[in-house]
Amino acid sequence: MPLGLESCPPQFRQQFEDQWNHWRDSAGHELAAKAEALLKDEPRQLALLRSFTGSDFLYRQCCHNPDLLPELLQSEDLGLDVFDTDPFDSEESLDRALRQLRNRVTAEVIYRDFAGQWDIPRVCLRLTELAETCIQAALAWHHRQLADRYGEPRDSDGNAQSLVVLGMGKLGARELNLSSDIDLIFAYPEPGETDGESGLENQKFFQRLGQRLIKSLDAITADGFVFRVDMRLRPYGDSGPLVSHFAALEDYYQTQGREWERYAMVKARPVAGDEAVAAELMELLRPFTYRRYIDFSAIDALREMKSLIQRQVRARGLSDNIKLGRGGIREVEFIAQAFQLIRGGREPALRERNLLRLLPLLESDGHLEAGVAQRLADAYLLLRRVEHALQAERDQQTQTLPAEDERRAKLACALGRDGWDQLLEELAVQRAVIEREFDAVIAPPEEIAEPSAAEEWEGLWAGCADESSAELNRQALEDSGFTPAQEALDLLADLRTAPVVATLPSAARQRLDQSMPLLLAAAAQENVPLLALTRVLPLVRSVLRRSAYLVLINENPPVLKQLLRLCSASPRIAEQLARHPILLDELLDSRRLLAPASAADIADELRREILRVDTSDLEAQMEALRHFKQSQSLRIAAQEVSGALPLMKVSDSLTWLAEAILQQSLQLAWAQLVEKHGLPAGASPEDMHFAIIAYGKLGGLELGHGSDLDIVFVHDADPMQYTDGGAGRDGSIDNLRFYTRLAQRLIHILQTRTLSGPLYEVDTRLRPSGNSGLLVTSLAAFEKYQRESAWTWEHQALVRARPVAGSARLCSDFEQLRLQLLCEARDEKELRGEVVAMRDKMRAHLDKSNDKNFDLKQGPGGIVDVEFMVQYAALAWARQAPSIVRYTDNIRILESLIDTGLMPAHQAEHLIDAYKAYRSEGHRLALQQLPGVVSGDQFTAERKTVQTNWQQLLG
């Protein structure tokens, strides 16, 4: 009687006993005794029972190779050694060895799975490693045989060529099944020919190589097969060439690639061939797979694929198919890959091929709700384990649950369940989890939502250019708050009859027709519907040829609502979105959009963005900086108009953004100059002996939307020394020339108008001697100028100066120098006269006030008057109270004047209140793209307060 028989379900006892006895007869006395000794351990008994019961394939392999069973029982891993092809003198001997290896590894993973020793990820990984080992071994052997006959294939420059094998699907994702096909694509770098006496075109050489590789893996012999090979995912499928060179592949995918091919390419991974060449191929294919914008059009393609599969499921009665049926494996894959295709272009982390590693990333980035990733993973693992058990039974590719009671009972036993009903109930629960999450992500909105308010607008949009229904349409618009209604109707008719709309492809036109009723319904909910419509339509026009953005709006009602709200609040935001629709991505997560970020958060996020860009591609780095600035500016504006960020924090955020960009831009410029000329003498990457000093609004932490950057560059390197050489033609240059070129390169990065426009306009006129002075000044020369030649207004500007990027040591030295300069003794009467004279001169040239209007900045009692009083107080009194110039922003200087007793609290607080009121209105006007001029009857109390204080302080 075999060991463990008492644990065997009654209906399988005779079968198990027969199997055991047959194996013992095959094994002989010595091996049988060894196995029986090992089987005194109860877990091993149970593992053997489940394995023999659940897998006829494993049982047959153990009988065919009797020593396999004791090896499985006594070890935890038989390993997978490197496959050496040198000993094989014939294709038959190679193929036999490959099949024997495949049978041994397959038998082992079945046993480890049923024994509970390996989890599904480990099983899949071992099967993937087996496939890679077999592909690489067969490829190497056949390449040698062909090269011996025809010579090595080479390109036009004589470089040797190798075949790159792309593993698709589960092979690419390292998720291979027990009985999976392997989906492959063959490619080689360039056309050419072999270098042998019997020369052959590369195309023919690699085609023959591919054919022989397939035969070694796919052909069924007395030893079985290695893997069934499927080549239908290659360009043009079965009708296309078996092998393509890289340029042909790139051309195909860029001009003819279809959405389902993008889906397939998500998991593509080189599994054989030269690694550097394979990496080049993957980089060529990346733009096809991953769009640089958030691509919601991918969802439509996935829905179409899923719909096709579901029709096949119904037609072929596959409801019990745990891969293709509802709540099956394919739906989990669709959920994950939808996010990959939609967002992978912008979020490289989501290009992870392995589903179980991808799910937590989706949750941590907020794409899946908390807990969903684990629920999906648990359901997926159960389905994959059942799938493996189904395929283990007879080594057949199947995902259909058995209909026969005996096979059902065997399956439940192999998986450690008490019976079929228990297993079926578990499957039902987990498939319901998958089905629910799939519907939330992939199912068309109409399948899961109540009829929307947009339906009543469909007719109006369809007939907005029809004169016969004009009156009816005007009434409908007026009833919904679009007044004047004729203006709204004209806007809609102009869009519908626009030539660009008439020539749209059918898919894009369908998306527009779906979007417009949704947009009208949402606009009707705004305070001023016509204003919302007017401001958002330029964006609609700008994306007509990139209609994936319309899908984004269609798929995300909260995005549409947020879009209309922001455009209504600010034409600046509306214009920015119309010019750069990629910023729509920022509206997808309202929590992130409206959550203020710290200076460290902004700097860290920018560093991560730049790390994703090729360090040798300056244009891509500049575009990344610009996109980051635009997206962050949009967030800050959204936070301001929503009330999530008060005025002072808006300026802080805009200032932190500028600082982060300056620091990152400086690092880029530094890296380029050092590569070309080497390091300046005495400098290092940690201390570049160079700093950026901010003046004006940036220096005073008062940056507004669209502000220029007033900056000055200083260094403290020895100008008589040289750089230590570099890779460029210019080689070594003197330090001063290096730092001048560094500043010029930095300005180039900031000001160049790329496709996304400039980063910032830069003003360097506040440097010593202005435009006639050196672009970069040594700290010693800066000090000499400030002490001996600077005008009073330049000392006033120094009140708001602070270092914002570069060498931390030099920045600290500048701060100490600034403090010394500001604390110099000054004649208050003389200072007062010079400050007043400068203010009068500015007002005469810049004040836009008149009898009806008040210039917030330059008008009497306006912003500049407050700033001049603060600067006067700082210069006049810093010697007796240095703490008042510790900070560079006006409000904290005024607060310091209170703390030191140099200004009465009520006086300083009145100035603070007036200053905040002016700046708040200035920010509001900037968002509305209006000049900083208001009606003359506004801010009368504040103006009077400021003017009174001016008289008291400056006479």
From TrEMBL:
Residue ranges for the region (Adenylyl transferase) are: 453-955
UniProt entry keywords in alphabetical sequence: ATP-binding, Ligase, Magnesium, Multifunctional enzyme, Nucleotide-binding, Nucleotidyltransferase, Transferase
Q: Name one Pfam family in it.
A: GlnE
Cofactor dependence is on: Mg(2+)
Domain Glutamate-ammonia ligase adenylyltransferase repeated residue range list: 88-280, 560-816
The UniProt record lists the PII-uridylyltransferase/Glutamine-synthetase adenylyltransferase domain at 303-441, 842-928
- What EC number(s) is this enzyme filed under? 2.7.7.89, 2.7.7.42
Region of interest called Adenylyl removase, as start-end residue ranges on this chain: 1-446
GO function term, MF aspect, one: ligase activity
Catalyzed reaction equations: [glutamine synthetase]-O(4)-(5'-adenylyl)-L-tyrosine + phosphate = [glutamine synthetase]-L-tyrosine + ADP; [glutamine synthetase]-L-tyrosine + ATP = [glutamine synthetase]-O(4)-(5'-adenylyl)-L-tyrosine + diphosphate
Where, by residue number, does the polypeptide cross the bilayer?
Answer: none
Query: What family is this protein classified in?
Result: Belongs to the GlnE family.
Say what the protein does.
Involved in the regulation of glutamine synthetase GlnA, a key enzyme in the process to assimilate ammonia. When cellular nitrogen levels are high, the C-terminal adenylyl transferase (AT) inactivates GlnA by covalent transfer of an adenylyl group from ATP to specific tyrosine residue of GlnA, thus reducing its activity. Conversely, when nitrogen levels are low, the N-terminal adenylyl removase (AR) activates GlnA by removing the adenylyl group by phosphorolysis, increasing its activity.
NCBIfam families per UniProt: PRK11072.1
Q: What is the recorded name of this protein? A: Bifunctional glutamine synthetase adenylyltransferase/adenylyl-removing enzyme
- Per the UniProt record, the source organism is Microbulbifer taiwanensis
Per the record, the gene is glnE
